[in-house]
Amino acid sequence: MRSTIAIVCLMLAAPLAAQTKQDYPGVTNFTRVDATIACGGATEVATLDALKKDGFKTVINLRVATEPGANITENQARAKALGLNYVHIPFSGGSPDPKVIDTFLATIADTTNQPVFIHCASAQRVGSVWLAKRVLQDNYSIEKATQEAHAIGLSNPGLEKFALQYIADHKK
């Protein structure tokens, strides 16, 4: 059981490396990216209670409603009951749409949403949008951002190419 003091200290701590993989009940491939962001893959509806208890304000779900186990309606209802902000940004890995990254970047840039938990089914799509965020909003190099995206869960060459093309199209 996590103690409240430990969680508060974690939330106030300096940013952690993306490689901070943790066991988190009800979440596949959970990664603590920094003090205000965590991400993962498939997330059980009941896990929203633990996320709320651990101080998260917002859940960003990148799953498409038709995916087996996505439970969008149940997640939205549970998040609302807990007072969590629930943002559903459907991201089809088979036909990625740049508007997904547009919406993600606007949502993640809003500091009132933090701390944020971002998830999809495996963390592939999370890694893809995170790659774009790190380069375009945090001024990471492509190499450093790609390394972090891989640590989070991105291993799909098509999703990586999609993110890199988005970056190329939007970099100032």
Looking at how many chains there are and whether they match, the oligomeric state comes to single chain
Q: Spans of 5+ residues with little confidence (pLDDT < 50)?
A: 1-18
What's the total helix number? 7
What portion of residues is helical? Answer: 40-55%
Give helix and strand order, one letter per element, not per position.
Answer: HEEEHEHEHEHHH
Q: Describe the main β-sheet briefly.
A: 6 strands, mixed
Radius of gyration: 15 Å
Which structural class fits the helix and strand makeup? alpha/beta
Average pLDDT, to the nearest integer? 89
Order of strands across the biggest sheet? 1-2-3-6-4-5
How would you sum up the global shape? globular
What does this structure look like?
β4 (58-61), α3 and β5 form a beta-alpha-beta unit. It is built from seven helices and six strands, in the order αβββαβαβαβααα. 45% of the residues lie in helices and 13% in strands. The longest helix has 14 residues, at 157-170. The protein has 172 residues and is α/β, with parallel strands linked by helices. It has a six-stranded mixed β-sheet with strand order 1-2-3-6-4-5, sandwiched between helices. The protein has helices at 4-12, 47-53, 72-82, 98-109, 124-136, 142-152, 157-170, and strands at 20-21, 31-34, 37-40, 58-61, 85-88, 116-119.
